Amino acid sequence: MPSSFPNSPRLLRGGLVLVDPDSGQVRRVIALQYNPDSLNRTLQVMAAGEGGERSEVLRLKGPAVETIKLEAEIDAADQLEFPEQNAAVVEFGIQPQLAALEGLINPASADLLSGNGIAGAGTIEIAPTQAPLTLFVWSKQRILPVRITEFSITEEAFDPALNPLRAKVSLGLRVLSVNDVGFSHKAGNLFMGYLQNKERLAGKAPGAALGALGIGGIP
Question: In terms of domain of life, where is this protein from (predicted)?
Answer without folding.
Answer: Bacteria
